[in-house]
Amino acid sequence: MIVVSACLAGKKCRYDGSAKTNGEVMRLVREGKAVCACPEAMGGLKIPRPPAEIRGGDGFDVLCGRAGVYNKEGKCVTQEFLNGARKFLAYVRKNGADEVWLKSKSPSCGAGRIYDGTFEGVLREGCGVTCALLLKSGIKVVEIHS
To answer: Per residue in 18-67, pLDDT tens?
Structure first.
């Protein structure tokens, strides 16, 4: 079983209320080989919502308390991202998944590059909060570019 980011499976759960549908992900879900979830929604964030980015590091830094997640309005949403990451990890374990496919560039799901916290479209090396928790927990993560 694979767990995938819900937005890749066609769910309109992104910050702007849209999806980033991926054909391969949709096929896996249809065939019953994958299930989907959105860590940001699981953490209590509304749809739609202001975009958010990590300031001061990446997801590993957020887990350690050295960085935070802020939305474009300047509100700290770190706790919601941490709560969502923990619930997503529990969902992965409950489903017996050995692999997770996450959407690229997201402050929760990004696995290689994330936005730098300036809201100017600048990418930097790093991973999102959920990705960091999954990796720290020994879960294999695959980044799906969208």
So the answer is: 999 999 999 999 999 999 999 999 999 999 999 999 999 999 999 999 99
Closest listed residue to residue 67, CA positions, set 48, 81, 51: 81
Compute the chain's Rg from CA coordinates.
14
By the 8 A CB rule, do 142 and 110 touch? no
- Does the model's pTM come out above 0.90? yes
**Tally of domains within the chain:** 1
CA dihedral 73, 122, 109, 113 (to 10 degrees): -160
| DSSP result, 15-84 | TTS-----HHHHHHHHTTSEEEE-HHHHTT--SS---EEEESS-HHHHHTTS-EEEETTS-B-HHHHHHH
Q: CA dist 98 to 1, 102, 138, Å?
A: 7, 13, 9
Q: Which domain holds residue 34?
A: 2-144
CA dist 45 and 31 (Å) reads: 29
Interior angle at CA 38, CA 36 and CA 41, nearest 5: 145
SS3 111: coil
